[in-house]
Amino acid sequence: MKDLLDGPLVLAGAGKMGGAMLTGWLVSGLPASQVVVQDPGPPPEIAKILADNGISSHSSVDGALQEAPSVLLMAVKPQVMDDVFSPLAKLAGPNTLVLSIAAGKTMAGFERHLPDGTAVVRTIPNTPSAIGRGITVCVANDHVTDKQKQVCDKLLAAIGEVGWVEDEDLIDVSTAVSGSGPAYVFLLAECLAQAGVDAGLSPELARRLADATVSGSGELLRQSDEAPSTLRENVTSPGGTTFAALQVLMANDGLKPLMSKAVKAAADRSRELAG
Asked: Which among 147, 192, 208, 213 is least buried, having the fewest CB atoms inside 10 angstroms?
């Protein structure tokens, strides 16, 4: 990452997600001297990283920049985004890339604060990004260059995988699948453990079994080249115990239609919040 940027990178918001990104950048070789942080009170663990690398955290970065930023990365909560972004937008130069990881804020919402022609990328990461195992889906406006897309790829790779869509409406669908998706997996572990308790296991053992099964299966899926359906079939013997359970989960009123309904509800709500 040493020669990735032509100018400073302003990180607005050094909380859990912004801090995870910053940590990944520094580990990957981004010079600390290129990073300027705007956050009036970063959490202690991030404050230590900043101090260890000689990076100051500012309540406002106005006086800390000698030139327009190469990247203006917005990692603050959506409810304060307008208040934080409006003054920062005045710092954008003709080659500045505005990169947002905030849910529910459209590209138009950023563009209205910026000069015409400013490059904007909207993304939706998910919570496993905090441990470098997430996935972030991105969409770019018409002013983003191929080089700027490559910059986004490398910056976001610090927290996991990266994917792109052409239509901003698909960010809402991505939010419903991957952004909200970790909660669905945690609910699965929760329900699996409770089912074990209902069947007679102790709560402690049921949770251990459920947590290890969900996390281990996820790791197996990550490392395997086979499709989820193939992995499922590999575990399922005709007429066996797994087959019996899947007869329930794969029924016409089972998991598939329920998940489709849940994803649609989340996507609809994402559109409402961004509206």
From this structure: 147
